[in-house]
Amino acid sequence: MKSLTRRDFLKLGGVALAGTAGGALLTQQNTLAAEPGMKHGSAAIQMQEHNGGLVPGTFGEVNHEKNGFNPTDILYDFDYGKVSTLPNGQTLREYEIVVINKDIEIVPGILFAAWTYNGRIPGPTLRATEGDRIRIRLVNGSNHPHTMHFHGFHPSEMDGVPGTGPGGSVAPGDSFTYEFDAEPFGLHLYHCHVFPLARHIAKGLYGTFIVDPKQGRPLVDREMVMVMSGFDVDFDDANDFYAVNAIPFHYQNHPIQIKVGEKIRIYLVNILEYDLLNSFHLHANFFHYYPTGTSLTPAEFTDTIIQGQAQRGILEFTYKYPGMYMFHAHITEFAELGWNGMFEVLA
Amino acid sequence: MNQQPVQPPRSIFTTLGLLLLPIILLAGVIAVFLNTGGGLNLEAPVPVETLTIERYVLKDNLIEIYVQNTSPQEITLAQAIINAAVWPIEVSPNATIPRLGRAVVHINYPWSYGEAYAVTLFSANSIPFNLEIPVAFETQEPNSKSFWSFALIGLYVGVIPVFLGIFWFPILRTLGKKWMTFLMAVTAGLLVFLGLDTIAEAFDQAANVPGAFQGIGLIGIGAVSTFLLLDAISKRQADTGRDEAAKRLSLAFMIATGIGIHNLGEGLAIGASYNIGEISLGTFLVVGFIIQNITEGLGIIAPVLRDRPSLGSLALMGLVGGAPAILGAWIGGFAPSPTLAVLFLAIGAGAIFQVVYEVAKLIQKDTVKQPTPGMVFSGVLAGMLLLWVTGLLIK
Question: Which CATH number is A66-212 given?
């Protein structure tokens, strides 16, 4: 069956909206008009109450079910692949990733005609240990050629860039298997490398690739993935909304719950297009920062870092006091356009 | 006696049927086209959406945006961004606006006095609609104080300068006939300039009129019908066979009317620009209007210089010519509507050009007896240059 695209959906309009398919969206849009916002103790509402309602943000909720992912789950969702051992003793991790076009409701009421890996933004967080054999079968279920280009060591024909063989441009309906050893250890990423590149990335084709050191990293209580990106919904090559893990203001409306004294590790990746820099600022705290995660010794103890396009790094911190703490891009314009979140630190 | 060929009497139903036949066929053709698409693929990849932002109102920590959906189908407003920040919106009566329906977008926003804001409203199809607030200040609500202050602006811009021009009456009456013809020509020049100015303003405003209301078409309707209507009225008066002085007086009143409608347009512009903070940036514009409009008083009295119009008539002419500026300022200030503005400006232009035509006839009548071609040429040119030069000084 032909999947329903955004345009089809809109064309169906009244018909679809009356049915079950569009019911949820309609309800939300009406909510937007009639009754602003949910009332169950979200951080945004708390902020609203303290400021007489004068806080940037979104009211209501995107349809996570229809989107097929929830940023709260993406935080903790690490994909270790189908694990087996090769005759030479090497660990083999196999993945299958399908590129599909999908309309994603990024803010309440606005559908973004996204291109996705496995129907989600960011794509699955692939995680391996240094020296593992990685085998990723990319199936192109969309109507454009796409690839997976990994940051890390690999042969040219596994680079996923046009001109490097069959893996350099996977035609619609085709597939290609990328295979290489996971190295060096660190925090990396993957993205489509078909041209026009900025558009292919900004449409949603990106994800995190974590290579753990052989001996592992020191144990922590909680590990999270945060992928910073933006959305150019009107296609003028300028972002209209910014977010971590795709949905603007998600962690502002749904604070991330952690506990006092817990050791937190965040794998932070910047895959923002159209803007040169992105940043991360943690309130009322400092963190150890490991640029690109390629060293086990922190490079910095700070509360704000800057990342250029495709830069990434690991943050480690612990909260001393309970309460609500913001984290956001200290490029404050991005924060007010969606890249804002809250930690709710429980005693 | 001629025998008219007798038509067989046709029944009223046959007549009606014949009248309706093409319309019924038309409905059939449209039905066929809508059902088959006429062999054309008419599905647009993106729905065409246009939203007319009619005006905005700034209150304490609140921005209200009045919009009208002028697209072929309904629009759902989803999000708003103000100066690079996403702000929650409430849309009343509903975020989904039917075609040609209106809605008000309420945004709680801590705006600051005197600063500029750029608002982008996003529809559910990610189509952005932009509003610029050049200078933020609390919107004047229609109350007695603001009513009076708009009236005062209209008074300064319209009534006072027109009357000041009329005050030239005693001195100008002493001029010779030749110079009176010159003054009539000056009036014609002034009016041509004002007419062009009004038409240009109408075209400017037409760009802001929602597409469905066809601003350019409104200009045609307003200008042409006003011209023809005034022409019919003046011909009827000519037929009543009154004396020349009475005709000249009625011409003066017609000039006053044309100028009055022009000043209504100026009032609209001033009221509207006051609302977006342009007037508050300087009284310069008002001073400019005063200087320019004094020449309008001159134009009004030119036809009756050789007569003895009553003081009452002169006063009435001044009011007819100047007071509409007050009305315009009220409309522009409290209920600005580009559609209405275009219609008023078009009516003004039609009236002015009709008056030019009347003045030209009068000049011709005078110059038949005493040809003064140099006077007419130099008068018309002087009239246009007068407004051009004063415009040069103030714009």
Answer: 2.60.40.420
